[in-house]
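Researcher: I'm preparing a figure for a lab meeting and need a structural model of a single chain. I don't have an experimental structure, so a prediction will have to do for now. The sequence is pasted below. Please return the structure as C-alpha cells so I can convert it later.
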Amino acid sequence: MNSTRNTVYPELLPESEIPNRQILNAANEFRDVTNLLFDKLLAGHHCARPLCMVAAFAIELYLKSLNAKNVYSQDETESMCGVYQVNAAPTKKEHSLTKLYKSIDEKLKANLREAYSNESCFSLFSTFESIIDEYDGLFVASRYSFDVNYDFGGKKGINITDLKNLVNFFGKFVIEMPRFCSPMQS
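Model: Understood. Here is the structure written out cell by cell.
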C-alpha cells in the first residue's frame, strides 16, 4: 500500500478559513497550559521559563491561526474513495511575533488594536504593537536563557502577568471573531 500523500485542489472548497480551527485548537491548549503554569508560579513553583515559552508559543499559534491556508491531501486509498485530509499551513513560518502580526490582514490588525484598547488588564503597554514587540523573541529566549551569547533585545525582565493576560486576550478575541473563508484560487 502506497502511503505517499499528494496535495490536491478540490473544487468549491476554501483556500483558507480564518481563524484556522486546527491551529486555534492547538493555541487554546497552550493557553490552558499557560494558565496552569501561572497558577503554579503563584503557588511558589519555579516554572517561569516554561511558562514564558508556552505563553509565547500560544501567542504565535493564535497569530498563525489568523493567516493560514488549507492544504488538502490524499493517499492512494483516500483517492480511490474520493476523500482527502485537510491540514493547515501558516503562510509565515517563524517564531517572531512582530513579523507574524505584520503578516495578517490589515482589517484583522485594526480589530485586534481596537479590542486591545478596550482591555484594562494590561499594566505597561498602551498599544497592541508595543506588547507584541515586548514579547517578540520570547519563545526562543525562554528556551536559551542560560546562553551567555543570547541577547533578548536588551530586555532584562518580563511582566508575566501581562504575558498571561495577552494569551487570554488572544484566546477570547480569536474564539469570538466571526469566521470567514476565501475561495480556492483558480
